Amino acid sequence: QVQLVESGGGLAQAGGSLRLSCAASGRAISSDAMGWFRQAPGKEREFVSAISPIGVNTKYADSVKGRFTISRDNAKNTVYLQMNSLTPEDTAVYYCAAARSALASTWTRAGMYDYWGPGTQVTVSS
């Protein structure tokens, strides 16, 4: 069993930056693909980014490519999402998720993830 807790959310101005962290406990996540999803009010949860177990491969939604960077530190059992050049459209609750076994081609699918954190709110003002 893995417990995930996101942190680092908050209020940012358009053009600003935030760094989200996802701390895992219960067991090591070094064999898990890790993903970030977000859900804005009235919208479905959407894929943001994912990273392979050892961090070699990453994937991004087109809407965040070039602005967001996902990384992980398996020694700290933590995954990060650096968010730059934020826009009001990035306002959402951001969720961290872990997938025990998922092909890279499936990382965008929320159903492929086994564990989820409670989420952290990110609000970007214009």
Number of helices: 0
Order of helices and strands: EEEEEEEEEEE
What is the residue-averaged pLDDT? 96
Structural class: mainly beta
C-alpha-based Rg, rounded:
13 Å
Q: How would the global form be characterised?
A: globular
Which consecutive residue ranges, at least 5 long each, have pLDDT under 50? Answer: none
Question: What's the count of strands?
Answer: 11
Helical amount among residues, as a percent range?
under 10%
The largest pleated sheet is described as: 7 strands, mixed
- N- to C-terminal separation? 40 Å
What proportion strand?
Answer: over 45%
Question: SSE layout and pairings?
Answer:
Blueprint: E1 3-7, E2 10-13, E3 18-25, E4 33-39, E5 46-51, E6 58-60, E7 68-73, E8 78-83, E9 92-99, E10 115-116, E11 120-125
Parallel strand pairs: 2-11
Antiparallel strand pairs: 1-3, 3-8, 4-5, 4-9, 5-6, 7-8, 9-10, 9-11
